[in-house]
Structure formats: C-alpha cells, structure tokens
C-alpha cells in the first residue's frame, strides 16, 4: 500500500476548506490500508517544509487539495512536486471554480490540464451557475452540495471507474457541486478524459476528471501518473455528509440525495480506492512490464 500525503494549499483555518474538511477522505484511504499524513500548509509563510521536500520524504502519492486563491505553492514547493512526479510519484489535484486553486499552474502538465478564469472568455455566455453572481467562469453547476450527479463516459469506462457494486460495472454517480472548475485534455497526448458531467443549469457537458499517464520526464523515464479533478468537492466531508458542516461563506442551499441514499456514495468510494491503487508507483511499473 501507499504512503499518501493529503495536503491543502492553505494554512489551518477552521472556517475555510482546510484539511479538517477532508477527514472522511483520509479515513477512507486509511481503511483501504494506506498510510495517510493529512496536513495544511505551514502558516509561517515562505516555502512549505513538507511540500518543498516532498520528493525526499518517502511518499508514494500526493493528494493536493488546491483550495487557495493563487498563492498556495511557492516556486520551491512546485519544483519539488515536479521532481516527485519525475521520480514516479503519483499526484491527484483537486481545485474548484474560477481561479480557486490556480497555484496548480506551476505544476507543468498538471497546470495545463487545469484551466482557470480567462478574461478573453465572455463570462456572460459561459457562466453555468446563475445563483452565485460573485463566482465567475468556469463554474459548472452539477447540482447542490449533498446531491449526486450522473457520470457520463464515452466508450469503455476507464479502470478507475470499475466497481462490482453496480449493474453496469462502473461508478455511475459523483457528489455534485454548484460550481465546478474546468479540466481539459485537449492537445495533450498523454492526457485522457476520465468522465464527464452535465450542467443542471445549461445542459453543457464538462469534464469531471482527467488522467495523465505515459508522460516522460526530461531524462526520458516515465513520470508518475496523475489525476486532475474539476473540484475538491468530490472529496470534501460536507459533500459526503452534510452533518459535518461547512465554512460560513457557503450560502447555497444543500441537497438531500446522499443522506437519503448513501449506497451510491459507497460505490463512489470504490473510485477513491481505485485512484489510490492506480497512482501507486508499483502499479504503473507492473502495467509497463
């Protein structure tokens, strides 16, 4: 099993999306047998003492919850993460609407697949979430926090979506969120769209997650696999269990589907376990052999 660093890009703050808001994810990964260290950025400013040396500390995976507004990674932090992937480490990133988590732009190809607000885009024609006017594009409205959204796939589902607990043999539902961000595989040969969602406001399709597999490091060796999620709300406690509470700045009314039917959330957790297995460096090597 893997040694996983579950890390946010902000300092500890009980009224924000700090790592305490992802306790159920940490518990799920531990229940699957992984060694999980869950932490926030160091609040003293400057380079984070763990992220800036993540390639030296024996971790197999980094699950990076990019919940900052742009300053979540220093150059040293980002360089260490790039070295970590170059040496085979697996990385999952999760951001959110507009520019939330845009520190990911420092992460090479992972920054490219995460697309953030672009002033050249006419937000008036692209905003899906009409209920929160302070949040601009990208903000795909997949449903209320506490509800489910259907997972759309083209062709055979990726192995990350496999489950033995649904009739189709794949994960069919993700937790929903009123304003998801944008991830894209356009023009990147080693990037693949894993799954798509559909806006409940406009009907637009958007990508829920993109996987990176087969990218080569500068030395010609395969880099670690990566998964880029359109929103960290796929994994937040509040989106799995409304009773866990929410930061005070969240004002959208929640849904009740997950509380009423937790079985589909249990199946989604198969996806979480699949991702952790797939990102493990040994899994990549076994497939390559």
TrEMBL record:
Organism for this UniProt entry: Mycobacterium deserti
Name assigned to this protein: ThuA-like domain-containing protein
């Amino acid at each position: 099993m893997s040694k996983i660093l579950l890390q946010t890009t902000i300092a500890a703050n009980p009224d924000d999306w700090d790592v305490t808001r992802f306790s159920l994810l940490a518990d799920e990964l531990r229940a699957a047998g992984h060694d999980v260290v869950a932490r926030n950025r160091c609040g003293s400013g400057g380079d984070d003492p763990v992220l800036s040396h993540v390639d030296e500390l024996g971790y197999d995976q980094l699950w990076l919850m990019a919940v900052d507004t742009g300053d979540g990674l220093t150059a040293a932090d980002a360089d260490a993460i790039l070295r970590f992937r170059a040496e085979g480490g697996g990385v999952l990133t999760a951001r959110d609407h507009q520019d939330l988590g845009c520190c990911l732009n420092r992460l090479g190809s992972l920054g490219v697949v995460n697309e953030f607000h672009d002033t050249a885009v006419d937000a008036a024609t692209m905003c899906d979430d009409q209920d929160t006017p302070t949040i601009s594009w990208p903000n795909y409205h997949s449903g209320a926090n506490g509800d489910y959204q259907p997972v759309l796939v083209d062709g055979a589902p990726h192995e990350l979506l496999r489950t033995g607990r649904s009739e189709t043999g794949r994960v069919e539902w993700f937790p929903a969120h009123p304003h998801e961000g944008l991830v894209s595989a356009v023009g990147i040969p080693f990037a693949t769209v894993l799954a798509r969602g559909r806006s409940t406001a406009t009907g637009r399709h958007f990508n829920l997650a993109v996987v990176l597999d087969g990218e080569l490091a500068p030395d010609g060796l395969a880099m670690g696999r990566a998964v880029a999620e359109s929103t960290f709300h796929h994994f937040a406690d509040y989106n799995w269990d409304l009773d866990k509470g929410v930061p005070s700045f969240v004002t959208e009314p929640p849904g009740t589907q997950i509380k009423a039917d937790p079985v589909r959330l249990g199946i989604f957790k198969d996806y979480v376990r699949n991702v952790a297995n797939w990102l493990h460096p040994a899994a990549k090597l076994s497939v390559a052999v």
